[in-house]
Amino acid sequence: MSRPLPSPRGGRMMGNGKKAKDGKKTLKRLLSCIFKDYKLHFFVVLIFIIISALAGVAGSLFIETLIDDYITPMLGSASLDFAPLLRAILFMALIYASGVISIFLYNRIMVTVAQGVLKQIRDDMFTKMQTLPLRYFDSHSHGDTMSRYTNDTDTLRQMIAQSIPQAFSSVITIVSVFAAMLATSWVLTFLVLLFVAVMMTISRKITGKSSKFFIAQQKSLGEVNGFIEEMINGQKVIKVFCHEETTKSSFDKMNNELCSNATNANTFANILMPIMGNMGHLQYVLLAVVGGLLAINGITGITIGAIAAFLQLSKSFTMPINHMSQQINSIIMALAGAERIFELIDEEPEKDAGYVTLVNAEYKDGELCETEKRTGLWAWKHPHQDGSLTYTPLAGDVRLTDVDFGYVPEKTVLHDISLYAKPGQKIAFVGATGAGKTTITNLINRFYDIADGKIRYDGININKIKKSDLRKSLGVVLQDTNLFTGTVMENIRYGRLDATDEEVYAAARLANADGFIKMLPNGYNTILHHGGEGLSQGQRQLLAIARAAVSDPPVMILDEATSSIDTRTERIVQKGMDSLMKGRTVFVIAHRLSTIQNSDVIMVLENGRIIERGNHDELIAQKGKYYSLYTGAFELE
Amino acid sequence: MLKKLLACVGEYKKDSLFAPLFVTFEVILEVIIPFLMAYIIDSGIEKGNMSVVAKIGVVLVFLVLLSLCCGALSGKYAASASAGFAKNLRQKMFHSVQNFSFTNIDHFSASGLVTRLTTDVSNLQHAYQMIIRIAVRSPAMLIFSLSMAFFVNSKIALVFLGVTPFLAFGLFFIMSKAHPIFEKVFKIYDNLNNVVQENLHGIRVVKTFVREKFEEEKFKAVSKDIYNNFSRAEKLLAFNSPIMQTSMYTCTLLIAWFGAKLILSGDMSRGELVSIITYTMQILMSLMNLSMIFVMITISKASAVRICEVLSETTDIQDGEKNLMAVKDGSIVFENVNFSYSKSTASLCLKNINLKINSGETIGIIGPTGSAKSSLVQLIPRLYDVTSGKVLVGGENVRDYNIKALRDSVSMVLQKNELFSGTIKENLRWGDENATDEEIIHACRLAQADEFIQSFPDGYDTHIEQGGKNVSGGQKQRLCIARALLKKPKILILDDSTSAVDTQTDKLIRKAFAEEIPDTTKLIIAQRISSIEHADKVIVLENGEIVAFDTPKNLLENNEIYREIYESQQKGATCNE
For A289, which of B53, B206, B417 is closest by C-beta distance? Predict the structure, then answer.
């Protein structure tokens, strides 16, 4: 029995209509997922399913037995003794009761199993997602990953909670009914089998037709929805150009096509049920006639009571088969979803062979050593092969030597990059989109690993540093602020979870954000939604800066942090930025040359190479690319 | 609301009537069939009367085929009616969105409109199909089966009267308990999706702050919440089939007991007993389906409400009564104009604007973000209506023009501009459907777009992807300018339309304007002072008020805001904002 469980995404239930590549393997894995944690549940459920299925079969035979064994004999006899009849009914009530209780119990247990497995799968997916390298996120669309949490998990729920138990129950019913049928009459059984074969063929034909039309429907639905999205987003342009009528007529054309495809697809889906149901009736009539012929003419010794029983059995036989054939589509969809989920869970996680860790340190007798306390002084703890340990103070000295890199091996995007950032220096990168500015910063925090060359941090090869410790020592402010749902306080504290309220306030003041935060309805406890809805871009940026400030790292990476802010607002943000940069090694990427003018070194990048380097005055004197950018003769895109 | 939606059934009224009609026939046949089947057993097989078996058998086969046809027809009509209903809904909404004014569009937001036109329509399509077919089928089945049961044997049918309320009450109770939990579950689902979404978008932040574990805890808490609530709801639903089965079995047993007595007393035949049992199944199943339909319809109600919001929105900008078809020249006059985006005049966005611009002048508009520069120019092609005061174009109130005529003469390049999927040429022809290739190339030359278009392998036939993703920001802006030029407007408005274009090219565009379209009034909103320093006059806006309207030279001497912006931009060039 299907349950009225609406999907949270309503109309998008159809998924993407793709089939699983290896359905069998996926099914096996899914079953083993269930089996692994719920062995006992599984067996108990199996037993209850068997009981309920058998009770169902017994129930369907009950009336005939009642008529044949109790009522008919009494019809002839003179004395009316209802005791055996009552006993039979009570006995049947017992069987029914056990069936009902079994159904109830296995449904309840399956809820726990299905929800438990789904929770496990969701948690596994997310845990795995957190360990994936950045490459994964850059190469997979968010919507695609998202749908694994929504549509795919949803179809899976239906499969675990309904399709799998139903399949078991159907198989048991089919087998036991088949045995009963065979025992009653092999001739009629043969007839039923023949009929079932015909029904299956028809159902497969219709399903095949319907899935062809469904694909066509999905395609034109995709087209119409795509058109709607494009046009609605450009609606103001349409108005300005008085293009309404043209747009309407192209829409109508697509919409009509969708309508005819949808009609075809749904027609085939809709007629399946009446056809199957009436085929069942037809079989019933046929069996009655043939059985009647056999009984009346005394062939194969079948009795009238047996025919009545057989008719009922044949119904119980075709019903689960019909059920199953209706479920096939959703099972196929669920398997495709499961496969996509497992695909995510099987992704290769980010590798980390680093062993140098970042520890709190203090000087004892002039020697740097590790301590439990938070001293504000950090050191790299470096174990060596001979078992000795050395401690290097965290300073923020970054050197790249002859670095080559490509996102794909065939295409190198950075060539021969060498640079040297002393602690406290400000290094700027200038260049067109795609010149490789962000790529360099991606390498420093090891979002990607270099192909050739060396990167050293405080003299240590960064491949030896544990990634989490390396990243803790780097602060990043990006153009995209990515605030999280939660209070302003929580968002700033994201930089360092154990920061006290005082430290958060201090960071906010440093970033020049304190002023506007206090103006918010609930101050620091104002809850932000959707990445800071209601805040201006500049205010969001200030929060991101405060967030980086509270983590207090020796090295900062500012990637287009002020690009989406207008010049007036930038001036306010700039103050926050300047105080944040003080005393740190800073890598700045900016379009606005005014932002980077005071850098110690400016690197001009083109096609992955550093073509000019020096400070502002030197570069202006060179009269090269930087000069033409500065004077506005050149376009950066 | 219902009336509005029903109006969308339109030409599919016939199909919408046939679907329930045929489904009713199907139900009637399905109710008659068990009756005849009982008859076959009673009078045919049991009595050994082969002719009855054959006769009734033939009738039955005929009825079954008829029922099959009715079922199939109702399926077909339901499919076409619901697909047609969805088509009309979509069309009606899309058309009414096309007639929306900017105010209407702002009211809904683009993504809100897209959801209404896509997901919500699909939801209603399913609901509609269900209503005209399944929602007719179940009650019909209930009524006919019940009456057949009474017809066959009214005494025994009384059993239903006892059991049916029990089932109905039980199902209703479960649904009413479970439904709010499901609503809650969907809200938590949104939270879960939000966490995933935030992590997908902010993965760089998560990783740089090494917050993977922290996010995991966050996710697991929500995931646990879903587990708990969903389990609660599902455990309630787990009562559904036992209740259903209990009712069915109780009926069966009661019928068996009383039936046996009735048979023995000669008040009922054995075949009738069998058929009553079949009716039992049908009655209880239809009750079960009814409770499902009830829930599904409640859920789609939200979609219906959202769609009706669009359908009942009336556009507030219509052609003027005078319906003037021609704009005389490019002069613009603002008389005491106040403007507010919302109907309430409490927060005015433009205050007491008085302006007089002569035809053919080049006017710069400058001011900090939020000073209502865009709002000011959007009143000229009547994208919004003034709250009070008057805007005159070519000496006539903008409200007196035919809208198309006005907007064809006032060409505007919006700040947030869009290209559409199609070739460059197709995109440009939005400006003038009948533009010749020469005209297109000429416009592109003026907008300094010809050069880069020619450098594409396919030139003017280069395919532009949705939203113009495959051209750079500066290229997109120049294409949008060319498109606006093709209208050959009397007034050309550029709303920060060259921000991504380098200063050199920007200069060339302005030069081309001055030389090639001297008679066109040009209004240029810019962040960059260099874009407007050669204008005839510059409007300086602040907080929705005109602070100054003078020549650039005078402004530099007398206006503090202008001078401040001017100086801040002399220090370092802005490459790309």
Answer: B53
What are the pLDDT digits (tens) for B243-293? 888 888 888 888 888 888 888 887 887 778 878 887 888 887 888 788 778
Q: What is the mean pLDDT of chain B?
A: 86
Asked if B455 is an interface residue toward chain A (Cβ–Cβ < 8 A), one would say no
CA of A147: which chain B residue's CA is closest? B193
- Domain count across chain A: 3
Put simply, the answer to whether B574 touches A475 (Cβ < 8 Å) is no
B573 pLDDT band (50/70/90 cuts)? very low
Q: What is the CATH number of the domain that holds A138?
A: 1.20.1560.10
Task: Decide which of 1.20.1560.10, 3.10.290.10, 3.40.50.920, 3.20.20.480 is the CATH code for B1-152+299-316.
Answer: 1.20.1560.10
In angstroms, how far is the first alpha carbon of chain B from the final one?
47
Distance from CA of B353 to the nearest CA of A (A): 23
The residues near B68 (Cβ < 8 Å, ≥ 6 apart) are A274, A275, A278, A279
Q: Measured between CA atoms, how close is B305 to chain A, in angstroms?
A: 15
Question: Within 10 A of A211 (CB to CB), how many other CB atoms are there?
Answer: 17
Copy the structure tokens of residue A385: 């092969």
Instruction: Write out pLDDT tens, residues B287-320.
Output: 878 877 877 777 788 888 889 988 888 887 888 8
Q: CA B383 → CA A2, A238, B103, B342, distances in Å?
A: 52, 12, 8, 14
Helix%, strand%, coil% for chain A, nearest 5:
60, 15, 25
Contact list in A for residue B231 (CB cut-off 8 A) is 111-112, 115
Whether domain B332-571 has CATH 3.30.2000.10: the reply is no
pTM for this structure? 0.76
CA distance B135 to B204: 51
Highest-pLDDT range among A285-289, A599-603, B203-207, B265-269 = A599-603
A108 with B249: Cβ contact below 8 A: no
* Short-list A546, A557, A544, A629, CA closest to A587: A557
* For residues A136-142, average pLDDT: 82
Interface of B with A in 234-293 (CB under 8 A): 234-235, 237-242, 244-246, 249, 252-253, 256-257, 260-261, 263-264, 270, 273-274, 277, 288, 291-292
B183 touching A, CB under 8 A? no
**What residues in B contact A224, CB-CB < 8 Å?**
90
Which tokens sit at B526?
């810019």
Pairing of strands A452-457, A398-405: antiparallel
Q: Alpha-carbon distance A360 to A112, whole Å?
A: 46
DSSP letter (8 states) at residue A526? P
ipTM higher than 0.85? no
Rounded to a whole number of angstroms, the distance from the CA of B176 to the nearest CA of chain A is 13
Confidence class of residue B63 from pLDDT cuts 50, 70 and 90? very high
**Contact partners, residue B342, CB within 8 Å, separation at least 6:** none
Q: 3-class DSSP state for residue A18? A: coil
